[in-house]
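Amino Acid Chain and Its Fold in Token Form
===========================================
Scope: a single protein chain, as residues and as a discrete description of its fold.
Amino acid sequence: labelled as such and written in the usual single-letter residue code.
Position: the record begins directly beneath this header, with no further notes in between.
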Amino acid sequence: MAPNTVPFEIWSLGTDLNDPADDVRLVIKVQDGDAGDPFATTDGKWTQAANGQWEAIYAFSVEPYPTTFDATSPKYNKKQNILGNIVIDGDVPPAGTVIRIVGFRPLEAGDAFEFAVNASNAQDKEAAKSSFDNITVFPNPYFASHELEQSKYNRFVRFLGLPQEATIRLFSLSGVFISKLEKNDTADYLDWNLTNKDGLPVASGMYLAYIDMPGIGEKILKLAVIIEAQYIDRI
């Protein structure tokens, strides 16, 4: 295979798959010799690695289609990228093979869609029972911090999938009572700020969350909390 060539063409078939008038040939780029990938070459060829995979293929819409190409291809706007990171694994299909990739079905004249949105009902306890298994805590384990926290002064874990009314009692694995949380609102979550009943930060360890949901049931969750070393940064 000569440099700067590939043994195939890529076309965009437009909005009408049966009308060749809106077909557009795309410019092909190959991910050649990227740092850290298995292709230790920048030879300008479409190369197959030892694991059987060929270099990734990208296709761009460029109008008009170029009649010549430089040794080094220019950078294209991401908006021109029609296909990205297509990888062929194994033998290349024989000459004459046509592969059609359909990314989405565009809207057409006469299309109609219907959907219904039911009003939320925080009092529907039967529905709450059916989603009982969805109740969980995030993150678990809690490891020093997570992306939802705004700073180290507002640490928390979040109990998710809760009904309108819920009481959460937290205990250590040895059975020592840690804290009690009450919920009576339409939100489906409740946060624990990782403090005990006296408002002091809890230590690293395993904790049990006993969740009582009136008229629905009870659930016990186990969560791990790992607190980073504490330093005095203000007086």
Q: What stands out?
A: The helical segments are 125-130. The chain has a mean pLDDT of 83.
